[in-house]
Design a protein that fits this description.
By secondary structure, this protein is α+β, with helices and mostly antiparallel strands. The protein has helices at residues 109-120, 123-135, 149-157, 163-167, 171-177, 190-198, 202-209, and strands at residues 2-7, 10-15, 19-23, 32-35, 38-43, 46-49, 58-68, 72-78, 83-89, 92-102.
Amino acid sequence: MYAIVEMAGQQFKVAKDQKVFVHRLAVEEGKKVTFDNVLLLDDNGQVTIGAPAINGAAVEAKVLKHLKGDKVIVFKKKRRKGYRVKNGHRQSLTEIVIENIVASGAKKAAPKKEEAKKEVAKPAAVKPAAKKATSTKADDLKKIEGIGPKIASTLVEAGVSTFAELAKTEPAKISEIIAAVRGKHVTDTWPAQAQLAADGKWDELKKWQDELDGGKA
């Protein structure tokens, strides 16, 4: 028996007694932890798929230890700019062992799947939902010169998740939002870059970014 479950923002295929390394969990070593976002269960060939998760199903695990992963070197260079940056990173991880896979909710997932099919049969109800999902979709803010993963996540948490929203935000306000992120960040060009991205002018944006130095003009 195995399951596909989401743990700490990642999806894993797990089985009983399997050891897994996940992103750092806020749980003490030796403690139990339960993951209830089970997407798929396979019980000796009988497969149950969630919609998107299986009601009542869960994966129970025990935290073995906290550790750090292997060092990853990130090196950036721009030709003819004198720009060279080298950083090292070790991801904080948690080693867990899968103790049990609970499938008690597998049978309850079927009615929800049927209800979802009935709702799709109503064109008037489906179209507004599709438009709503598209309008709230976040953009990849890391495409803006000077914005890395940490800054991007900080901006999204503050409610700035799209190029259009970033373009409307003053540089001073952006600096205030990311004040807790370590390092020196020049935000002067970020709104203008975001406007080009929002307008789909990628060639123009890339040409400008080749002239920038970490987001600074």
